[in-house]
Design goal:
26 helices; 70% helix; mainly alpha; 451 residues; 0% strand
Length: 451
């Protein structure tokens, strides 16, 4: 086998130097198991083998990639399809590609792509995708302008209203939600279960209990709406925020009756949290036992159960569950020990937090930035600023791309270094933040006085 020096050639070679017999005859299996930056070589190899390929099959694969959050690879598949003249371009999916461009490259490139599409090809799905891009980016003015354009073109459907309602809810502009529902009623646009749920959640968040109850009655009376478990957990959450535990518990019981077998995992995880908020330890354990009967125990389930017990101030119970998880987990997840560190730090049990982190290191599971940041916050609250600075430094050094800096803890550490006259160390930490790519605008505002 000849030596390949060029990096791009190495990538291609990694795919092409396997015999056809060793490669899966299923394109989805080949693609889903491939994690190199470019997925194009896998598609090209498939074509070279003379295997059948059409857009509908690729669209099914594309849907799975989007579901798993592999947006970059999904976009590459879109681009690859559009570049192949032998594939049916009449099935070209501009709305999907627009959405992926926004997720991978940002809203500006998504707008550029949209503007290149002729007016005659701008179907309602494309405007809907653009509207959703603006909503995800929280660009309220552009979203409202796009919504108005859709009204003018007669493209107003339930989906567009739901996107706008979701955006208004996320930006706390609750007063505009009722106006949209009134508009839908006037225009005869169907109010579906998503519309109801968005509005119901907004009422719960705003503690508008009377309106929440009236909307729930309307949902229950609507023959087009099939009541589902999460509608009642949403209402229960609203009651809990308002301090009405009795009504909350009634809704939680109703919710349990509506859970379908395929929904048990997510429903039980939700119920664990809500029963804990209601102070019902017995119900928390009851739901956990139902969860365990599902057969497989998930890390997220343990996280929900441990955080629920912590909310009930049952620290010993949290420790026992953590020990059980250590024995039973199938895939290690640092979020679980990180949660235990948080619980210990909130209770001022810093030695236990340190022991947990030490055990992680000894087992070969290195703490990450989130671990050290949580410990740093514990030290700050306990006024052990020397240790807080060291933990914060470790957090910055081990930072990962999606890590969010705790600006309050960082500011406390920099303020301490400034008071102690250790300006060089403060400058070094800020320099590290910049080098590691964590000096965002928000972080900069919190440290600018130390620069």
């Amino acid at each position: 086998m000849m030596m390949i020096i060029n990096k791009k050639k190495k990538l291609v070679g990694r795919v092409l130097y396997y015999s056809a017999e060793t490669l899966s005859p299923n394109l989805y299996h080949r693609l889903i198991g491939f994690h190199e930056p470019s997925i194009v070589p896998v598609l090209d190899q498939w074509v070279r083998e003379g295997r059948p390929l059409d857009r509908p099959d690729l669209h099914k694969i594309l849907k799975q990639f989007r579901k798993f959050g592999r947006y970059n690879h999904a976009l590459q598949i879109c681009q690859w399809m559009d570049d192949k003249s032998y594939l049916d371009n009449s099935q070209k999916d501009d709305p999907v590609r627009l959405d992926l461009i926004s997720k991978v490259h940002g809203i500006r490139q998504a707008e550029e792509y949209f503007n290149k599409i002729p007016d005659t090809s701008r179907v309602w799905q494309l405007y809907g995708a653009l509207l959703n891009c603006y909503a995800e980016a929280r660009l309220l003015n552009k979203a409202e302008a796009t919504m108005q354009k859709m009204r003018d073109l007669g493209y107003t459907k339930s989906l567009a209203y739901n996107v706008m309602m979701g955006l208004y809810s996320a930006t706390n502009k609750y007063q505009k939600l009722d106006l949209l529902i009134e508009e839908m009623d006037q225009k005869g646009i169907q109010i579906d279960k998503f519309t109801y749920c968005i509005r119901l959640n907004a009422y719960a968040k705003a503690s508008e209990i009377q309106k929440m109850e009236m909307l729930l009655l309307r949902m229950e009376a609507d023959p087009e709406v099939r009541m589902e478990w999460h509608a009642y957990t949403t209402v229960a959450n609203g009651y809990l925020k308002a301090g009405d535990t009795k009504k909350a518990l009634t809704c939680l019981k109703k919710s349990e009756y509506l859970i379908k077998p395929s929904q048990r995992k997510s429903a039980y995880e939700n119920l664990l949290t809500l029963y804990a908020s209601a102070g019902r330890k017995d119900d928390v354990y009851r739901v956990w036992n139902l969860y365990k009967n599902l057969g497989r125990l998930y890390n997220h389930g343990y996280l929900c159960f441990m955080s629920s017990l912590a909310k009930l101030d049952c620290i010993e119970d949290v420790e026992k569950v953590y020990q059980e998880w250590e024995v039973r987990y199938k895939r290690f997840d640092l979020q679980v020990p990180n949660l235990l560190v948080t619980v210990y730090c909130k209770k001022g049990l810093l030695e236990k937090a340190e022991t947990t982190i030490q055990a992680l290191t000894e087992s070969g599971n290195e703490p990450n930035a989130s671990t050290w940041s949580r410990l740093a916050l514990g030290y700050v609250k306990n006024d052990e600023m020397g240790k807080a600075v060291e933990a914060m430094r470790k957090a910055v050094l081990s930072g990962f791309p999606r890590w969010t800096v705790d600006t309050a803890t960082l500011s406390a550490c920099l303020d301490y270094l400034n008071r102690e006259g250790r300006l060089d160390e403060a400058e070094e930490m800020i320099k590290l933040l910049k080098e590691k790519g964590h000096l965002s605008e928000e972080v900069y505002k919190s440290v600018v006085k130390f620069v």
